[in-house]
Write a structure and sequence with these properties.
The protein is α+β, with helices and mostly antiparallel strands and about 325 residues long. The chain has two domains: about 180 residues, no CATH class; about 110 residues, Winged helix-like DNA-binding domain superfamily/Winged helix DNA-binding domain (Arc Repressor Mutant, subunit A, Orthogonal Bundle), CATH 1.10.10. Helix content is about 20%, strand content about 20%. It has five helices and 14 strands. Strands 1, 8, 9, 10, 11 and 12 form a six-stranded antiparallel beta sheet that branches. A four-stranded antiparallel beta sheet has the order 2-5-6-7, with no helix packed on it. A two-stranded antiparallel sheet has the order 3-4. The N and C termini lie far apart (about 60 Å).
């Protein structure tokens, strides 16, 4: 690598260009991970301390650079002309400087409303027992290291894992807030998560003919009953896609998908919202015009589930729309 190229990639303003290198599906051993240090009594591995508990789509608390007394970074980091004195570590393969980020779907850069550095922005899931954790630590006074160690993929899947790092290197010797960025990849074995196997699942909806229905409760009850009979070697013949085996796993994933949506919905209903306003919480992505109708009735089903369970209240507003809010 010539000096001109090295200088180009040592500038923080161009660090996010490296994101393109994270798109390869095959396992990569392009660089060795930094490890083997002990940052503090709270250190839990060779990569430092756990940044957050095992989760899906959650983030760490806000960390200030000043918390790490062994580190420099006295002037924070100058990122695209703005100075930040701390960061959030997000489970889905990135750090952000302004607020936590739960989205698992990468959007085109630059992120003008969410300053971030993303070594591998994807649908990370660390809830599985065989999955690793996300760590942060310092290998020396000038180096902050974030490690996604053997992290699984949504939903709760550790059959393939990714291991990668983001490294921030203080370069105050070149100016206050200056820093270098490194992306290090040990193993990259997956690119996208899937809530479903195969990729088509039933639409569970509430319709005008029965606005108080609770189809999600019926559906989850049916899945639980089928678990008593399903065998791993049963051949399933779905209405879409190819036949498959592994029905017990399929049923567990379907149940976990909806329970995960309900958990996110509970958090989102701290203020009154319509079904249309909670679709991002239910589906973890923007719903396009072509699928809006199906998305809306399924969001209604999740709201009604919590309503029938006595967890939320429902009120009809002057605009003719129901709104739900957590009790």
């Amino acid at each position: 690598m010539n000096n001109k190229f090295k200088d180009l990639f040592s500038k923080a303003a161009l660090s996010t260009l490296l994101l393109a290198s994270a798109s390869a599906l095959q396992t990569s051993h392009a660089s060795v991970l930094l490890s083997g240090w002990d940052t503090s009594p709270s250190a839990t591995s060779v990569y430092g301390q756990i940044a957050m508990p095992k989760n899906d789509d959650s983030s760490s608390r806000y960390f200030s650079f000043n918390e790490f007394t062994e580190l420099n970074f006295d002037s924070g980091v100058n990122f695209f002309g703005n100075t930040y004195n701390g960061f959030y570590v997000n489970n889905n393969g990135n750090i952000t400087f302004q607020s936590a980020l739960s989205s698992f779907t990468p959007n085109p850069f630059p992120q003008t409303n969410q300053p971030m550095i993303a070594p591998y922005w994807a649908d990370v899931d660390t809830r599985c027992s065989a999955c690793g954790n996300v760590y942060l630590g310092a290998s020396d006074a000038n180096t902050m290291v974030f490690t996604w160690d053997s992290v699984g993929v949504y939903s709760n899947n550790a059959s393939t894992t990714n291991t990668f790092q983001l490294v921030l290197i203080d370069r105050a010797d070149e100016g206050a807030g200056n820093f270098d960025v490194q992306f290090r990849y040990e193993d990259i074995n997956w690119t996208t998560g899937s809530a479903l196997i195969p990729s088509i699942s039933s639409n569970i909806g509430v319709y005008p003919t029965e606005p108080d229905a609770n189809p999600l409760a019926d559906w989850l009850h049916s899945c639980a009953r089928l678990q008593d009979f399903a065998q791993a070697d049963h051949l399933a013949l779905p209405g879409h896609k190819l036949p498959f085996v592994g029905m017990p796993l399929r049923l567990r994933q379907l149940e976990e998908n909806h329970h995960g949506a309900l958990m996110r919905l509970r958090a989102d209903l701290k203020t009154p919202k319509t079904a249309g306003e909670v679709m991002m919480a239910v589906f973890k992505r923007q719903i396009g015009d072509g699928e809006y109708g199906l998305g809306l009735v399924e969001a209604l089903a999740h709201c009604n589930y919590l309503w029938h369970a006595g967890e939320v209240t429902r009120s009809l507003h002057q605009d003719g729309a129901y709104r739900w809010v957590i009790k």
